[in-house]
Amino acid sequence: MAGEDDRHHLFSYMEHRFGIHQVRFAGYLLFETKKNWFLIKSTYLIGSASQLKVSKVGLRAFQRVGSFIKPTTRFIQTFGRFATRAKLQIDRAQLQALLGGEKIHVDLPLDNGYVILVIGDNSVLGLGLYLNGKVCSQLPRKEIRSAMLNIA
Q1: Which helix H or strand E contains 99, and what residues bound it?
Q2: pTM (2 decimals)?
Q3: Where would you tag: which of 4, 77, 108, 146 has the fewest CB atoms within 10 A of its CB?
């Protein structure tokens, strides 16, 4: 299980960057591996499974990328709807540009870092990386394929 320092660091980042309050994650346990953190709903059944040797559990929530920590696409798709900051509403033309590997120019009152990409009626696609007024896609290839099917 991840320590309280890790838990505080990860979830305070989510609150500071995206406005997703730390209390949103109070009912979840956080497990750490070398490069990832996994999130699982806390339940009384966890105790009975504690004797098992488990290699992966729950939803992969964060991963180490060099010296940085990146929320995963699935995690953002699950909890991104609660974000009050660092959300970028994009249209189909912008999505097509991102899917084509282009960067889109946006003027956001944010520090450089991740933004949640949203299309349509608050449908969370995943993350983009905002650097110096431009956003590039951080969507995995399978997400890109799915997004392309949905906009066709």
Answers
A1: helix 92-99
A2: 0.86
A3: 4
